[in-house]
Amino acid sequence: KMIEFLNLTQLKTSLKETILLKETILLDYYAAGFWWARERNFSLIQISRFMELLNFALENLSSKHMTLGDNLKQLERAVTGLSETESKEGGDVNLFSIDQAKAVTDFLFASLFKHYKAFEYLFHGRREEPVISNE
């Protein structure tokens, strides 16, 4: 039903439509994360930080080509650094409660890290080169 609603029924293997599919997957991932955080009644600041974590993990994979293990280490550092930065700036050190932090971690594992190979293929899989001329 969602494929029909998004009008993705005519997908082919062309480069243009592959890019559209990639954008659709990323949009879905970010939208799912946003609504997940809203359903847990996160504050605007918590939602913002949560979305930053989603983006951080995806950027590590897409731009920096990080392995799963390296990305997990960087995410741990980012979360720790976030708390240190907030305490220096006089912000809330406990941005997320323990239960919320566990839920955030569970979301990241269930959505991104569980399907890491699929996301790696999305960003770095071989694509067919378009035929530009008959030569």
TrEMBL record:
Pfam families according to UniProt: CLAMP (PF14769)
Cross-referenced InterPro entries: CLAMP (IPR032727)
Top-rank taxon: Eukaryota
Protein name: CBCO1 protein
Organism, as annotated: Motacilla alba (White wagtail)
